[in-house]
Write a structure and sequence with these properties.
The protein is an alpha+beta fold. The protein has a domain at 3-18 and 40-81. The chain contains three helices and four strands. The chain has helices spanning 26-35, 63-66, 69-80; strands at residues 3-7, 13-18, 41-48, 55-60. A four-stranded antiparallel sheet has the order 1-2-3-4, covered by helices on one side. Strand 3 (41-48) and strand 4 (55-60) form a beta hairpin. It is globular and about 35 Å long.
Length: 83
């Protein structure tokens, strides 16, 4: 499963994974393609190591390779604060 792990300013470790990305089958591949929005974004779920709330993000489909750790941390912080 492709995932990214980052740590924010509060020392919370986050594990982020794209929805359906952990499944290994033709069905999962099709589900991943169907989950991509018209604007090229995908749903990414980030789970914290501590007591923080899990967040769902809508990110560009190339987030895994192209989004910097700082940009991912900012997206998580923004989603977690409800802004």
């Amino acid at each position: 499963m492709k995932q990214r792990e980052i740590t924010d300013e509060s020392n919370t470790a986050w594990t982020c994974v794209q929805a359906y990305a952990g499944l290994d089958s033709k069905t999962a591949e099709q589900a991943t393609k169907l989950a991509e929005a018209q604007d090229g974004t995908v749903t990414v779920v980030c789970t914290p190591s501590g007591g923080a709330q899990t967040v769902r993000l809508e990110l560009d489909k190339d987030w895994l390779e192209e989004l910097s750790d700082e940009e991912l941390t900012t997206a998580i912080t923004s989603a977690g604060s409800g802004s």
